[in-house]
Structures are given as C-alpha cells and as structure tokens.
What does this fold into?
Amino acid sequence: MAKTKEKLIKPLESYTGVADGELVARATNIQANMTGNAHFANPPVDLAALKTAIDTFSALIAEALDGSKRVIAQKNKQRQAVITMLRLLGRYVEVTSNGDMAVFQTSGFQAAATTRASSEPLSESIRKITHGDNSGQINVSVRPIRGAQSYEIRYGAAGPGGATPTMWTNHGVPGVKTPFVVTGLTPAMIYVFQARALLKTGYTDWSDSVTFICT
It folds into this structure.
C-alpha cells in the first residue's frame, strides 16, 4: 500500500496590515529559531543578513517617529525587504518540514489556520488574544461558561518550537466582559496561554494552549 503523502503546513504570512513592531517581533523570533536549526540546514536566505535587515528596519522605525517623509520611505522599503526574506523562508520551511508539525514549529513560524474560521474561539476557554496598548502587554479575552463563579488564566514563555512552558504565572479573572490585560511581558517572546473556569464542583481542566508573540 502506498504511503499517504503528508499535507504541507502553510506558514502564517498575513504581513499586510501587521504593525511594524509586531513584524519585527515575528521576524526576530523566526531568525532566532532558524539559526543553527538542524532541521533547516540550507535556508534560501542568509540568516545573519536577515538579522541585519531586521535591525536596520527597527532602527528606521524609531527614526521615522519624527515624521520625516524621507525616513518613512526608507522604513517602508526596508519593511518590504524583511517581508520578502520571510516569504522565501516560509516557502522553504513549508516544503522542508513536509507536513511534520513538530519540525515546522522549530522554525519560529506560526502555522496558518486551515479549517477554523477566524471568528471562532481560539480554544474552549480563550476567545481572543490581542496586543495591548503598550509594549509588553497582551489582552486575553476569556469565554463565558454557564455557571462559572470566576476564571483563571496562566501563561509562560514557550520553549523551543513553541514547547510547553517550564514555569507558569497564574492570574484570577473575576469577569469576562472586558479582556484581562497581562503586563510586564518581554517583547519578541512567544508566550503560551491557558484558561479554566471555577464552577460549584471545582475548576474545569485547563484549556488547550494558545501561543502569541508579545510586542
């Protein structure tokens, strides 16, 4: 019997509309994870050159804050250069990982959704995660559960390839009408989030993990 061919895993590449700071965070994470990664030994982009491109882009973001049209144009051009490098690496990771999610995740790329609509909850207990108003903040929206007296979230820095954190930080969430703001996080770091509800019978199990890059 012929072996079933693995379906390739497509990387998340929705760069249009992504804030400059978030793009820097995503690119930095990918560059760090792919450097020295034995699974991806022959990338089509020099990873040292990618780091230089990211650093240049980051510097131009800061310079462009004064509103200079010349610097803004340079920043936008450099942004596109970084995106082009990421797209090349994304195609390489997609093909090289050959449908193996464990290998794919070591690249630092996030896998694109295949069947779930973006409007659906991220997990059975987490509805949405977004960037906060300030650097180092993440907003976590918890799904309401009938009969819940309160909720709890926990988070921690992901290990290599998005692995489960070795240390968790827990926070009680009294209500779900507004997002819970997690502060004091490290920009460019990938965090893993889980949530659970407190019922009369006790706590539910922790939800499936949801990963998110802090900016």
In short: The beta strands are 126-131, 138-142, 150-157, 169-173, 180-182, 190-199, 202-203, 210-213.
